[in-house]
């Protein structure tokens, strides 16, 4: 009898460990009745309950799954828009890799090549290039922002020291509608030249109106530096955003946005949504302002949460 009980206890323990490991492999973590508490959410006065959290982390150079497999596990079958995945584009080089450093540890490395990369398989488009990951229509709903929902996005990124930008767009983050008038992104974090000065900026594009710069900082503030970003958005015709980008080396706030009554919805049905996009998406019209050398932007610790704001 004692031997039987011992074997039963061992079997139960094995089952618990197995279930725990399977949960960790899913990249989807359900959290309820907890208030987010991170190193930068202290800048957000809004408290909320976390309904779900989806995680994407690199697992190390030459270890575990490939970068592409990790991203697909996060976003679905086709969340990657890298040149090497499209025949006829720049297929001989993988454009998202993994690496590690002593600041953030394991992370993803996004590459861009001015004279070789194009925008997916759109070879009729010659004025821009793209290397991005995204949520899309076949991603799980926890990655999509529907009307009147509040989402929190957190990640880290580092622009290489020598990267050059032009007067045109160089996007590193987009919040883009899927459905309705969805041609332009609603929110971007971008690099651009403004009156001859290189800046990094947060830009808002209202529906059928000229875009507005919500905040900006010197490009020199971010070159070669890891930034930790927190972005809370409520998707509505009169929506709101709280965005903080903080330099990790000295905790300096680089971008600080708090906006309400903003046009942050494009949808025309209950299946339309807003999705995040990260990577390098840039204009190459002003070639003279961009280096021919390979550009690198590093990303780490993606977190996408649906939250329910708590009433004061």
Q: Would you mind describing this structure in some detail?
A:
The structure is a single chain. The chain has 312 residues and is mostly beta strands. The strands form two sheets. Strands 1, 2, 4, 5, 7, 12, 13, 14 and 16 form a nine-stranded antiparallel beta sheet that branches. It has a seven-stranded antiparallel beta sheet with strand order 3-6-15-8-9-10-11. The N and C termini lie far apart (58 Å). The protein is 11% helix and 42% strand. It has one domain (28-309): Jelly Rolls (Sandwich). It has helices spanning 2-25, 67-75; strands at residues 28-29, 48-56, 80-81, 96-101, 105-112, 128-134, 150-159, 170-178, 187-194, 197-204, 212-218, 226-234, 239-247, 253-262, 273-283, 295-309. The protein is built from two helices and 16 strands. The chain is globular and about 50 Å long.
């Amino acid at each position: 009898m004692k031997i039987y009980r011992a074997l039963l206890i061992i079997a139960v323990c094995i089952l618990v460990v197995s279930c725990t490991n399977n949960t960790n492999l899913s990249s989807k973590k359900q959290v309820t009745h907890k208030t987010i508490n991170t190193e930068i959410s202290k800048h957000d006065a809004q408290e909320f309950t976390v309904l779900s959290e989806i995680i994407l982390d690199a697992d190390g150079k030459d270890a575990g799954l490939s970068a592409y497999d990790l991203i697909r596990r996060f976003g679905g079958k086709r969340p990657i828009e890298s040149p090497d995945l499209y025949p006829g584009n720049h297929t001989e080089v993988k454009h998202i890799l993994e690496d590690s450093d002593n600041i953030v540890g394991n992370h993803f490395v996004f590459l861009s090549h001015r004279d070789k990369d194009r925008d997916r398989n759109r070879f009729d488009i010659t004025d821009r290039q793209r290397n991005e990951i995204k949520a899309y229509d076949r991603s799980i709903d926890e990655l999509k922002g529907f009307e009147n929902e509040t989402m929190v996005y957190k990640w880290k990124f580092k622009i290489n020291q020598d990267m050059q930008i032009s007067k045109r767009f160089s996007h590193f983050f987009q919040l883009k509608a899927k459905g309705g008038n969805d041609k332009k992104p609603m929110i971007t974090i971008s690099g651009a030249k403004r009156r001859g000065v290189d800046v990094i900026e947060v830009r808002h594009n209202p529906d059928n109106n000229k875009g507005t710069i919500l905040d900006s900082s010197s490009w020199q503030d971010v070159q070669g530096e890891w930034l930790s970003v927190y972005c809370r958005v409520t998707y509505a015709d009169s929506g709101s955003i709280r965005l903080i980008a903080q330099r990790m080396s000295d905790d300096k706030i680089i971008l600080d946005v708090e906006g309400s009554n903003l046009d942050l919805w494009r949808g025309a049905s209950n299946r339309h949504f807003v999705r995040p996009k990260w990577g390098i998406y840039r204009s190459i019209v002003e070639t003279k302002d961009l280096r021919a050398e390979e550009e690198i932007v590093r990303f780490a610790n993606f977190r996408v949460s649906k939250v329910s704001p708590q009433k004061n």
